């Protein structure tokens, strides 16, 4: 054991470490950091899972939520034992994060009334449109209030019994602590937030109540939503029952403080030090979204942009696309299968490395090829369902390099359409920070994203840890100096010595992606035809 390992072992054994858990679209991750040095990752654990498409709705079973959390936590504990030879018995703090939005509705006894409806569902078009007009604020299809109102419009029998609606992070947090609360960033994806109060907009709450009238739950919508907290506020303690849910072995003690539960957008902002105006980040996984902290309110309502907040409550313009890197991963899996069929062996990471490096040799506009990654519906471009497509014309240059560049461009295609709208609003971005597995191969996706956005793109050492690390940092922020706001805490205590690689946009990539995006926009008619015909 090295001196550093000895110090880490003491931190963990003495309960001075902080745990972050994030439930992402395909992985549940656990991350352990020192409370007084959250830039250092001590141990990690993870669990793979997938959503299900049942009764034409995307969902996860709640038993899978807890099986995955326990497995990820057990993997972290095993990592701690293997590295440091100690057990995890107590912690300085815990944070829980998860995919934002969606619909988890419970009755007065805490029983789930209908299967969890995730952010990925697009069946809420009527509700979202009505609420957007009523509120004068863009309410995307994935927002919790759109799901709730759509259930009202559809006269779903369960609506009369609804007594609590929350997000996935809010649900897990409530089970661990007994408290029905939510971080302001996650709450801002449930219902619009008033920038002055950093709480739900009271005027809009009243408008919703008048709209619903006596058709639904019989109580104000404000009583159905979790209480809103900002970063740094206490959000409860781990109960005995919560400790048993997290660690059935009984080793973990109750009484550990928790920070406000946050959404993956908020933890992405924290993980990329992007909580101040003129900063932004792109998070790429099953979905892909960009967040830009605003200097001033948007001049107009745009269906491509929704306004959420940082974990501290500052306004953020969000471009959220339901489809990210899943189709790219599927193609990589196809090539991996081909390699295996030849009798050779390459692991998934090696396959991605080869394919990504090949993309660098592609033509700036991907040789006339087009890739649509729409496995699910994509509201920004008006599709209720997805049909992944690869399209070429007879004179396109069909090479491996161009194919892979087209697929990487395709990951950023719909996002770029939304970001063009934000540009028209006059939003200024000094730097975009990117994180997610697609950026692990240095200098490829990062470079193409810089070309797509026409702005410098930074990737840091923490990119692969993502939101689990981000929520661990927010948990550590509970014990920070009260004089430090979240931005100062991140800059001075977390990222001061961080190694960050920044890539400026290459003019050829900018021009090439612009040409690709023009074809991409025109080719959406092909995607629409596929949705209609298949």
From TrEMBL:
Source organism superkingdom: Bacteria
Pfam families: FGGY_C, FGGY_N
EC number(s) stated in the UniProt entry for this protein: 2.7.1.17
Residue span, Carbohydrate kinase FGGY N-terminal domain: 18-246
A GO molecular function held by the record: D-xylulokinase activity
Keyword Kinase recorded: yes
Keywords for this protein: Carbohydrate metabolism, Kinase, Transferase, Xylose metabolism
UniProt xrefs under InterPro entries: ATPase_NBD, FGGY_C, FGGY_Carb_Kinase, FGGY_N
Domain annotation Carbohydrate kinase FGGY C-terminal: ranges: 281-477
Similarity comment text for this entry: Belongs to the FGGY kinase family.
Name of the protein: Xylulokinase
Organism taxonomic ancestry: Bacteria, Bacillati, Actinomycetota, Actinomycetes, Micrococcales
